[in-house]
Amino acid sequence: MAIRVLLVDDQPLLRTGFRMILEAEQDIAVVGEAGDGLQALDQVRALQPDVVLMDIRMPRMDGVEATRQITGPGRDGPAKVLVLTTFDLDEYVVEALRAGASGFLLKDAPAQELVQAIRVVASGEAMLAPSITRRLLDKYAAKLPSGEEPVPDTLHTLTDREVEVLKLVAKGLSNAEIAADLFVSETTVKTHVGHVLTKLGLRDRVQAAVYAYESGLVRPGGH
Predict the structure, then answer these.
(1) Cα 133 to the chain's mean position, in Å?
(2) Has residue 128 got a pLDDT over 80?
(3) Is the dihedral of CA 58, 62, 63, 64 positive or negative?
(4) pLDDT digits (tens, 9 = 90+) for 66-93
(5) Rg for the chain (alpha carbons), in Å?
(6) Is residue 114 predicted with pLDDT exceeding 80?
(7) How far apart, in whole angstroms, are the C-alpha atoms of residue 120 and residue 25?
(8) 27-36 in b/e burial notation, b at 16+ Cβ within 10 A?
(9) Which residues in 157-188 are b (16+ Cβ under 10 Å) and which e?
(10) With 56 labelled, which of 66, 101, 183, 222 sits at a CA distance of 20 to 30 A?
(11) pLDDT tens, 39-49?
(12) Distance between CA atoms of 203 and 35, rounded to whole angstroms?
């Protein structure tokens, strides 16, 4: 089955370029396009894409709100959102990740990187270098809680080891690096990450990193 992709960008030329790149791949099918967030919502309902390639800054409804409605409670389908941005440190990207995006990609990324990102997101993984997640969250730490707020009740559902794993995910470590740090197998780490996501009701490790910052478990700039 081909990965069904919806292209959302207010610039027709960019959508055309993305379409040409993606339609050259046998396992990807571009099922539609939209020029703003409102059109995107209609297209998601009508076309049921697997992945939405989402611009952030658009008229009528921006990509953050569209992402929130596509991936939020009561969503119409299993669509994953891959956010496109011109800037690698864009405060709107943080909001999009909070809203449920599975990752982000720069608009000038190489074609093969775009293709790979879509495959990764479609498979249910997060497409975002952990180090970039951390830089984003550190940069916009002023928008996050101070860390003096009470710890969320949900955090108490985690075991001590799961809390350890969550901290390391938020600090930008890959599964392999976490495994080496904790002297366990990578499979064990994947199991722990899976338990963390399930217990906290999170979609992927990107949202787990955001949660760790927002809950005060990890402090901006801390190690």
Answers:
(1) 9
(2) no
(3) positive
(4) 998 998 765 656 788 998 887 665 677 7
(5) 17
(6) yes
(7) 14
(8) ebebbbbbbb
(9) ebeeebbebbbbbbbbbbbeebbeebeeeeeb
(10) 222
(11) 999 999 999 99
(12) 26
CA distances to 10, 91, 93, 196 from 219, rounded to whole Å, are 36, 18, 19, 19
- Rounded mean pLDDT, 161-178: 87
The amino acid at residue 179 is A
Cα 54 to Cα 31, 72, 116, 170: the distances in Å are 14, 15, 16, 24
How many residues in the chain?
A: 223
Distance between CA 126 and CA 193 in Å, rounded?
A: 12
The mean pLDDT of 3-30, rounded to a whole number, is 94
165: amino acid identity, one letter: V
Report H helices in the chain. Answer: 12-23, 37-47, 63-71, 91-99, 111-122, 130-139, 160-170, 175-182, 186-200, 205-214
pTM, rounded to two decimals: 0.71
How far is residue 100's CA from residue 64's CA, in Å, rounded to a whole number?
9
Average pLDDT over residues 192-208: 87
What pLDDT sits at residue 147? 47
CB of 45 closer than 8 Å to CB of 70: no
Rounded Cα gap, residues 170 and 179, in angstroms? 15
